User: What shape does this take?
Amino acid sequence: MSKWMKLSTVMLGISLIATACGGANNNNQPAATPGTGDNNVEKVELTAWAWNVNVGALNEAMTMYQKDHPNVSIKVEDIGRLDVYDKLSTGLAAGGSGLPDIVLVEDDRIQGYLEAFPKGFQNLSDKGFDAKADQFPAFKKELTSKDGKFYAFPFDAGPTGMFYRKDIFEKAGVDATKIETWDDFLAAGQTIKSKTGAYALPADKFKDDANFRMMMNELGVYYFDKDGNIDFNNPKVVQAMATLKKFGDADLVKDVNGWDGIVSATVDGSVATIPFGAWYYGTIIDQAKDTKGKWGVFLLPAFEKGGNRAANLGGSSWMLNADSERVDAAYGFMEYFSTTSAVQAVAMEKFGLFPSLQSTYSEPAFQADNEFFGGQKIWKLFGDEMANIPTPYYTKDYAMAMDEAVKAQAHVFMDKDPAKALKEAAERLADRTKRAVNNG
Amino acid sequence: MRTKSYVPYLFLTPAIVLFAVFMVYPILYSFLLSFQTSVGGEFEFAGLDNYRRLFQDEIFWTALKNTFVILIIQVPLMLTISIVLATFLNTAKSFKGLFRVSFFMPAVTSLVAYSIIFSIMLMGDGLINQALQAIGLNGVPWLSHPLWAKAALILAITWRWAGYNMVIYLAAMQNIPESLYEAASLDGASKLRQFFTVTVPQLKPVILFTAILSTIGTLQLFDEPYTLTKGGPSDATLSIGMYLYQTGFRYYDFGYASTLAYVIVLLIAILSFVQFKLTGDE
Assistant: This one.
């Protein structure tokens, strides 16, 4: 045997072993022992992946949970948001190896994961979650379920608001409470720009379409309709893009680069309002400490007088690994976490995570005046908004749809007709996803 | 005493095992994956479907075109800058070390830090535009115009890698015998003439080496578009590497992503072969 033959035999052997190991990993797991969560004898350590403030929220909740369940503990790995997805996608593609019991997933990604990896996540309805579901607003229920079954514990949400600088508004003589429609806001923005030089709103024109998504959601439409058809040609979607263009044409949109760009525009006062989800509160109080008391918030303007002003941007939910042997213990803890208003109140007060559990809104924290926002009852405003938020339909092709929408937005800001830009985007998206396109 | 014939292999085993697990297995597996497609979470064999899909995939062609535009402009530009810098440094009398280090620094800078600083400098009201306006020019939409965004990428990559190639050239130049230059100057050749008839031919193998390395690097381009432009505006800076990442990790289509990976491999093989042929080396 030549030495190359020997070498390749060795390597072939090794790769066979490697394949065998990979295959064995997910099949030979012991069956779940029911009721481990209530069993005081057996110690259970759960594992979870989450990012940022969510880690603290989960750890705090575990401390509270341990009063009744001293045998359960949790190890939360703090991994960057995008890294969680990379690791999760790779793990699921490899048949579920190396995944934790609990993982945090943003709402706009849930349906994508469920369609791409239908066997990867625990069906929560089978464990009895349906009985608890009515405590959450309708849009959140739709986002966390598929074909009538729950696959994620609803957690935080991002009811939208216009965070605005009171001092800039006052200097320009604009009364924020009088702004009811986007046209009102356009007029106000022009006054503010001419009197103070501040832009009406920031946008990462060529990389992100957050404003567009908020407007679509407010109008009750999204990239896709309920049946998963591409809805870019819907007159309401066109209306949202056209409204954005009006602000662009009037030079009221500050072009910022990425998240850092938005934050620095917030801090230096070069924009008068920032439309965002409730979670942006945390960033404002953290990054713009000097502006304490100068902030206010009002709901997104409506598209017509008296129209809907509720929308949502962002928010996430917790999913369970279906292959985990500790799935019952994980279910027990996560059900406690997501349906106990005291826990959710802590997550909100300490970490600024706005809960979707409706019973939380009657907690005292939600009725209080907010000092940073000049005594405004901002949490009550957001809490009241929650019930009216329409459901956005994300589907598994959400990431692709967003890429095409961002391209359409880029074209619109480069002076293309909104309806035309969206029509082209719809065609490209149809080509990529093989989905049907709704016509107008 | 004769060593038994298997003994060398025993010593090689650790290296071979690591190589097999971390290199051979993924390479073979992704090759298999490139013929598969995911149906409801299970991979199924799909024959040449993924490869056929390439031909109808407009975004793939856009990404390919972008990558080549950047490649064709950036690699020669950067190598020219590197070789000119190296020539000056080679003849410099003082501060040689200081310059060498300053030009090489970008190559060892943390990628994230470098791209954040570039994105801040290139912003609409960033440092570079402020400087342009200060000397009476108009600001440039660096990251938001299809053409300028490509220019910004080329600028960033060149900044990062020119010094690295310069150090390689510098090392090679120090091996060129002084006698060649002496003979050339006795024959009356100017400095410029010496550069083209002595330095460049002597550096040929090194130029080939850096050209291939840079070509491979640019074909795999990912970091800069990912951090600076996210492939935008409107796919103007989408590279194949970036499209591969999007396909795998954002659209969960690992089969097609593997196909794209093999397209890159094929391109690198072809281009390296062409470069060898063009320069006439064995």
Q: What stands out?
A: Chain A touches chain B at residues 6-7, 10-11, 14-15, 18-19, 85-86, 89, 92-93, 112-113, 116-120, 205-207, 255-258, 260-261, 396-397, 399-400, 403, 406-407, 410-411, 414, 428, 431-432 (CB under 8 Å). Chain A has two domains: 39-157+314-366, 159-312+392-433. Residues 190 and 250 of chain A are 8 Å apart (CA to CA). Confidence is low (pLDDT under 50) at residues 9-39 of chain A.
